[in-house]
Please model this.
Amino acid sequence: MKKFERLQGLVAPLDRANVDTDLIIPKQFLKSIKRTGFGPNLFDELRYLDEGYPGQDATGRPLNPDFVLNQSRYRDAQVLLARRNFGCGSSREHAPWALDDFGFRVVIAPSFADIFYNNSFKNGILLITLDEATVDRLFQETEAVEGYRLDIDLEGQTITTPSGEAIPFEVDAFRKHCLLEGLDDIGLTLEQSAAIRDFESRHRPANPWLFRDV
Amino acid sequence: MASQTLYDKLWAQHLVTQRDDGSALIYIDRHLLHEVTSPQAFEGLRLAGRKPWRRDANLATPDHNVPTTLKERSAGNAGILDDVSRIQVETLDANCESFEIEEFRINDERQGIVHVVGPEQGATLPGMTVVCGDSHTATHGAFAALSHGIGTSEVEHVLATQCLIAQKMKNMQVRVEGKLGLGVTAKDVVLAIIGRIGTAGGTGYAIEFAGSAIRDLSMEGRMTICNMAIEAGARVGLVAVDDNTIDYLKGRPYAPTAEQWSAAVEAWRDLVSDDGAHFDKIVELDAAEIEPQVTWGTSPEMVVNVSAEVPDPATAADETVTQGMTRALEYMGLSAGQKITDIRLDKVFIGSCTNSRIEDLREAAKVARGRKVADNIQLAMVVPGSGLVKRLAEAEGLDRVFVEAGFEWREPGCSMCLAMNADKLGAGERCASTSNRNFEGRQGYGGRTHLVSPAMAAAAAIEGHFVDVRSYDYDRADAMSA
Model:
């Protein structure tokens, strides 16, 4: 997994609550058997004025000029500022893959859906939950100032605004550790193989119907 | 020991290690796979030179991409006309073969929507942990199994380690007491719950559905309710074990037999929340007050009674909600104050992991029997949840009822719930759907979805617009869940 330590990133505001995973990456792009290449189809139905399909070259498609990521000032954004319940809906990991492929490393919102939250951290994307009032203020500042960037320090768990204001954020210790080190959690879990086998040696006799010899 | 909730018990029974930082390793008993969220996980295993930890815990079936028309279906994978879809299904077949995982392939009669297949086979059992790369895995909680959706990285993690890194959720109880009115079904109950707590109301919680109205539901009805826990933001929905649970499972192919059956039943009887167990949040609904529900917007929480009107965004609690409602009305082509029963439809879809089980089809068939689909309905389709549901429905003559009324009777799969196969809405088309999500574009680019129960969908097909099934003249004998 990609490491995340610190980022000074351009911020793009997506002013809409309950952004669901179908909106982040529509279902036709889920037919891919790869993990990469989803960036051009991130927010496909919001970004383009036509219907997209997998395998298509997106460069000639008509862009929706009203969509925030189509505005030149936000094109290189690495931080997405969003509203409550971002990422609700399906478990498709294609959603964080698309965000990552577009270039986003951080999403800030008042709340996130649970499965999306998990999936993002597993792909090196830092999700930061801040209260509604703070998110409101960041929306105002981002929209007011072209080139608005936030300095995000995972180790110190702070966001620093251009005016020098430091906003602290919470992140659970295990996820922080994995992100800082870029750890592969399958490798970490396999280090506990003995504990898993030990669990099985108790679980199986207590529930023999859960095991079949195949 | 202190009183525990059902969720607390299931968590404790599967805890492998608890870390100081609050995360834990939990053991996974059953892993269901389908073609959409597994290819990258298998590829990850292959690249790392890893093998599945326990082959017998896994069961796979293709469901999202499979065609539902007989002509295409009879050709097997070759009948999948979209190359990208076909490659995904073929990739599942190849991965299951090389990693030696049991799979019900496209034309195996046991194939179907993974959340219909698991319980139908008895591959979902009480007291299990069940995961799948699909958010509607919450369905299996109807059997008091700790079940939830996972992402593809976690699919790979479960394949490789038989465990999941997890954090304990909070406990919520949703109590529905009393008797449901005639024509009011499990789907209406869960939509009413989502309307009450909102699409993020259950975020961070495992929801246990309890109360006399839940106990009165069949297993099919309980699956419908748990299925949509995720639409309230909760990854996990649960219902305690009772006689219904045990009767449903007896004799199913993967269920325990002989001496193991009685030992299992004895263990399962404890899978209930103890008296006095602590819930972090309790929500109560009166079953008698629940009406048939219809969604009007682009989130399942945008739902009203069939007797109501489309709501006015100006009445919303805050600016963000008003904006969301305004955008939804625009997308849906509706205006505030419009009567729900005046909404005219173009298509009707009866199917999905929410409502494609035998009981759902029986309920819809009761409404359709002896009637004709309205002229303005371009397509009304019924898609059974599995090959076995299809066979049973045909043995009961339900297929003939539907076909005589003008519905199309299809082959099993996810179909137009998310339109990954050829079944989809065109831009601007309006659909009464028994599925679970009314998100923008969900059933097709620019398509407009209204979520309803199977009986409501069937009645809408016959009349061409929404009607209140409670005042509709049909034979309710053996009406489900009422």
Summary: The CA atoms of residues 115 and 145 of chain A lie 33 Å apart. The helical segments of chain A are 21-24, 44-47, 94-102, 114-121, 132-144, 173-181, 185-190, 193-206. The mean pLDDT of chain A is 96. The first helix of chain A runs from residue 21 to 24.
